[in-house]
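Supplementary Note 2. Why include the ligand at all?

Several targets in our set were suspected to adopt different conformations when bound, so apo predictions alone were not considered sufficient. For every target with a known small-molecule partner we therefore ran a joint prediction. The input for flavin-adenine dinucleotide is given below.
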Amino acid sequence: MKTLRLILGDQLNIEHSWFTKTEESILYCLFEMRQETDYVRHHIQKVVGFFAAMRDFADQLKSKGHQVAYFKINDVNNTQKLSENLISLIHDYGVNRFEYLYPDEYRLDHELKEFCKKLQIETAAYDSEHFYTSRTELADFFKGKKQFLMENFYRYMRKKHDILIVMGQPEGGQWNYDKSNRKKWNGKETIPPYIKFDNNVSSIIKDIEEVGIDTLGIFKSKTFEYPVNKEQATEQLKYFYENLLVTFGDYQDAMDTNEVYLFHSRISFALNLKLLSPKEVVNTVIAYYRNHSDKIDISQVEGFVRQILGWREYMRGMYWHLMPKYKTLNHLNNKNQLPDFFWTGKTKMNCLSHSINNSLQNAYAHHIQRLMITGNYVLLTQIDPDQIDAWYLGIYIDAVEWVQLPNTRGMSQYADGGIIATKPYISSGAYINKMSNYCKGCHYDNKEKTSENACPFNSLYWNFLDEKRSYLKGNRRMGMMYSLLDKMDAVQLSKIKERATNIIQNPNEY
Ligand SMILES: Cc1cc2nc3c(=O)[nH]c(=O)nc-3n(C[C@H](O)[C@H](O)[C@H](O)COP(=O)(O)OP(=O)(O)OC[C@H]3O[C@@H](n4cnc5c(N)ncnc54)[C@H](O)[C@@H]3O)c2cc1C
Ligand code: SF4
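The joint prediction is reproduced in token form.
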């Protein structure tokens, strides 16, 4: 009996029960494939990072005595397609049972199900043993409810897993300290230098160049800074709770021209490849807080736990509940083209220039840059959500469809008509000025609306509300904005709309 077990590039969980004992009869396989590198244009650091972590994982398995078939991107026997690589191994090794771990992406889940239907040998699929929830737990929780509020799900998760709960009540008296998570960073709290790893990836870069994968972004250092295995990921997590947790919550939404990461953990890459488990992240951070509760406030810890136990599990549950239709939704009927400057960072708008250049240089932007700078701009300028998804899915180191899609199409673009976000996340320049120092060095004037040097966000904001009135007027959370719009002088509104139209039609000139 020979069993073939597939490990996908984002299933690098060395603590999975599959690996507890070695067996001669089991062959593990991992493939670097054009099928995965080419479905969108990815950031060079993302492709390198996935391959580096996969190669490291295969080496770890081999050193533990497991049998491993690893296809590099330039191997001659690599067909570059998942099903075809599997078929060739099944034939070459006389395999009579095929096993895989449930993929987190709908696309691969569908492919593997179809593949197994056609196979003449036994097949089985297993849990990846990573998430707190099963694929359907969120849908079961919300069954019969009209609204899918993250906050309700989060409270259920806190209680179910007994996390920051004291005698059935939230520790500290509040479920959510979101309101104290909105401070502007003024440079008083120093940010320690961020942790980086010197992973030598020159041979991977050579392989990628040899086969000619079309990537985006910049890779200056040539050593890969993110963790590529469990050991490094654990070090990164430790660095976070020892140095950054103490002010994480306070500055979660802050942005600064000189700081790429501020107090963010940068663990999303490790988490999404399953180098780290969400349970271990939450438990370790809480354990550290317990030993340092004289220095660390509950609001910082709750703010962090909410991201992992709340948002991350919520997005996964929504993805599985709403796919495959979700990927096609365009509730606001947005059709404009993504401007060229999203690929170059060349724009006079300082906030966008910084957020896009961060993304191009580091394959990273934190959630407020993704939501309230780039996301806000593309929503206000009414860009086609398919183009937005392709950009977000390609550019970020942590972008895997199950988490990227609900965050982008739902949370950020309101393309689902309000299933994930109860109102569109839009703002004028005032919010950006409140949360960052971007406006100080900007070509545009944050206070102006219609003059030649007026901040583009100011006219785009009112124009959006006016143009999308038919979609949004029934939304109670938008009532105040519409009553302000209705009070606006008609001549002023017409000037605002004229400027907004010019920005939308000539985005690369701004
Ligand atoms: C438009 C948009 C697109 C996004 N695309 C992705 C994506 O492709 N992949 C991805 O992992 N996250 C995505 N996010 C969520 C968030 O921006 C990133 O998880 C975060 O910036 C990663 O950096 P960090 O590890 O330093 O996060 P921290 O701020 O330190 O947060 C800790 C962890 O919480 C989790 N988390 C925080 N917010 C979210 C969220 N909204 N959804 C799910 N998990 C969350 C992440 O695992 C993150 O590592 C997106 C957000 C927006 C608004
Ligand atoms: S003035 Fe407007 S465009 Fe410039 S940084 Fe501020 S919000 Fe962005």
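The chain has a mean pLDDT of 96. DSSP finds 22 helices and nine strands in the chain. Comparable summaries for the other entries are listed in the accompanying table.
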